[in-house]
Every structure is written in structure tokens, then in C-alpha cells.
Specification:
The protein has 354 residues and is α+β, with helices and mostly antiparallel strands. The chain contains ten helices and ten strands. β2 and β3 form a beta hairpin. α6 packs antiparallel against α8. It starts with a helix and ends with a helix.
Length: 354
């Protein structure tokens, strides 16, 4: 058994613990139509870079039912990764899934892909982790590929969702509550998310108008005790990074300056930025100037900062201690040791919206 087969054996052993009608339904459909899907998608597996950012609709008939496939060629999948949105009809109801595909010859991308699947599967018991239904190896166009089937979120990521609409207060509360619940649960297991950017926060609205939040692309999950501050490689988008990492980038400071017991506060800062985006409906003030933020006084001294100039921040404290504004302020403290803990933030938020 080679290394790749060994990894698959371990992953499949984990996967065997997941049983649901939804999983069986999707796997059955996918296996039944595999050849037709592969044949249809082959021309899109090696698209030139100019195609990135485009959506390719494909429609074909399967047992007298029309099946829609959308191939989303996006930046996260530019290096050999492809996301296929598969719309199918099962059990007299519409079932939508996302199929991510990666070519096995791309070693770095393949490793991240497998790690993402492993982390998603490992924490399926935590609310808000994107459900994963299947993980297989297949041959497409004489190339070995890995495929991962996940839940489809119809509003895209948090940024895409906010570009389409301004959520109502109750919708904001629901999103924040779900995010806090997920982060608190991961932190309780001493897991650092590290890449908690709005790009990885997915939004789905059900037919009953219920908002579902999912955290995806989890290849960066790290256990606190495994972090070496001397060699720690922060991999999230710097646009959403906390000030301590701007200081590392701009002032060439060391990660060793951040106490190990507060390393998880990276996630708290990123969560605070997500709250800012939901509450203000304006760009992050240190990414570009914010116009008429809905939160009075918050970030009023920071709105002139350009991204590369952000090395210090002084944010005025809102007067109402039991407000979402104050909770956001507690998350966006420049000093990571002063940021609120996820569980504490969750409990406070529940009291605020009660």
C-alpha cells in the first residue's frame, strides 16, 4: 500500500462513521451518473487562467430529468482545483451539492485538499462546519483526480451575500450567533481556525427563509499545542489579519512576541471583522475609507488607515457595555491578550439579543 492509498484507507475509515439518507442519496446519484458527469466536465478541467472567475452552465438529461451543472472557476481553485455545483433531483426533492475536484499530480494542492477533507470530516459534530458527503478518487481524461462532495450554500460566501443584500437585524443576529457557536466549539477543543476570513464563511437560505452558516476550507486548522511560534506560518489573507501580523510584516517582529496561550485570539479578531461587516455594511475601515458607518463612533479614529500603514490602532470604547458594538470592540482589541474569549463572547451575545 503506497502513501496515497494509506491516506485514503484512513479517510475512508473515518467516513464510514457518517450515515444519513442525504449521504446515501448523493453517493447513489453520483455513482450512477459518474461517467456522464466526467464526460461532460472533461473540457473544463484544464481551462486557461483567463477563464478564472467565470461560470460555465451545462445542462443534460438523465432519465428524462434535466440536470444542471455549474462549473465555478474561482481564484481558490486556480491551481488545479475546480468546484462543480451539481443540481439533482432525489427523493422527489431538489438536492444541490458542490463537488470539488483536484488533480493528484499537483502535490501541494492535493495535500491541502486532503487536509481540508480530513478536518471537515473530523469536526462534523460541530454546528456550522460545512457538511461533507463523499470523498473519492477517480480517473478523468487519463489523470487521477480527488473529488469531495459538500453541501451547497446558495448565497456564496459572506462577502458575496452582503453584496447581494443588506441583511435585516434578525438575520444578522442569526449569522453572528451561528459563527460564535462554531468558533467557541472549536476553541473548546483547542483548535485554531487561523483562516477565519469572510471568504470561508458560507451562507445558505432555505426555502423557509432560515439562514444557515457554514465554515469551509479548513485546511489551516491547527491544534494549539502543535504550534511552534518560531516557525508558525500564518496562511490567511493578510487583508483580514489581526494587527500583530501586520506588525510582523511591516516591522519584522517575531511571532514569539505573542503569548502562546493567546494565539487563538487570531480567530477572535477575524470574527470581529465579520461582525463589523454585518453591522456596518461598509468596507473594513483599514482596507479602505469607510463611508457613514452605521455603528456610531466605532473605528472613528481608524478610518484613515491604509492596509500597509496599519501598525497601531486606537478604537474608542462604546458606552453601552451590553451592546453588539461593544462586543465588536472587545474582539477588535489591538493587544491579543485583551480580546474576549469566544465562549465569553457567545454568552454575552445571547444576553444582548435576549
Amino acid at each position: 500500500m503506497n502513501e496515497l492509498e494509506s491516506k485514503f484507507a484512513k479517510l475512508n475509515a473515518l467516513k464510514s462513521g457518517i450515515e444519513s439518507n442525504e449521504l446515501k442519496c448523493i453517493c447513489k446519484y453520483f455513482e450512477k451518473n459518474r461517467k456522464q458527469i466526467e464526460k461532460t466536465t472533461q473540457p473544463f478541467l484544464h481551462l486557461p487562467s483567463k477563464e478564472i472567475g467565470t461560470r460555465h452552465p451545462i445542462r443534460y438529461n438523465s432519465q428524462s430529468k434535466e440536470i444542471d451543472i455549474f462549473l465555478d472557476i474561482e481564484e481558490p481553485f486556480a491551481r488545479g482545483r475546480l468546484r462543480i455545483t451539481l443540481r439533482s433531483l432525489q427523493y422527489h426533492r431538489e438536492e444541490i451539492v458542490v463537488i470539488k475536484v483536484v488533480e493528484t499530480t499537483l502535490e501541494e494542492t492535493k495535500t491541502k485538499f486532503i487536509r481540508d477533507y480530513h478536518n471537515l470530516l473530523q469536526f462534523q459534530d460541530i454546528p456550522g462546519i460545512v457538511p461533507v458527503y463523499d470523498f473519492t478518487k477517480t480517473e478523468i481524461d487519463q489523470h487521477d483526480h480527488l473529488e469531495m462532495v459538500q453541501k451547497y450554500y446558495n448565497q456564496g460566501n459572506l462577502i458575496q451575500y452582503l453584496e447581494k443584500q443588506t441583511p435585516k437585524p434578525k438575520q444578522c443576529e442569526s449569522i453572528i450567533l451561528q459563527l460564535l457557536t462554531t468558533v467557541a466549539a472549536l476553541h473548546a477543543k483547542k483548535i485554531l481556525i487561523q483562516d477565519l476570513s469572510p471568504l470561508n464563511i458560507l451562507i445558505n437560505i432555505t426555502r423557509n427563509s432560515v439562514i444557515e452558516v457554514g465554515l469551509g476550507d479548513l485546511e489551516t486548522l491547527t491544534r494549539w499545542e502543535e504550534i511552534d511560534t518560531k516557525t508558525f506560518d500564518y496562511t490567511t489573507n493578510l487583508k483580514y489579519a489581526p494587527p500583530e501580523f501586520w506588525k510582523i510584516a511591516v516591522e519584522q517582529m517575531s511571532m514569539e512576541n505573542i503569548p502562546r496561550e493567546h494565539i487563538h485570539k487570531i480567530d477572535i479578531w477575524c470574527l470581529g471583522e465579520c461582525l463589523w461587516m454585518l453591522l456596518s455594511d461598509t468596507p473594513l475601515p483599514w482596507a479602505e475609507k469607510a463611508e457613514e458607518p452605521k455603528i456610531p463612533n466605532l473605528f472613528s479614529t481608524a478610518d484613515q488607515f491604509e492596509m500597509l500603514e496599519l501598525t497601531t490602532m486606537h478604537i474608542p470604547e462604546p458606552k453601552d457595555l451590553m451592546s453588539i458594538e461593544h462586543l465588536t470592540w472587545e474582539m477588535l482589541q489591538e493587544d491579543p491578550t485583551q480580546r474576549i474569549e469566544a465562549q465569553e463572547a457567545l454568552e454575552k451575545f445571547k444576553k444582548i439579543i435576549k
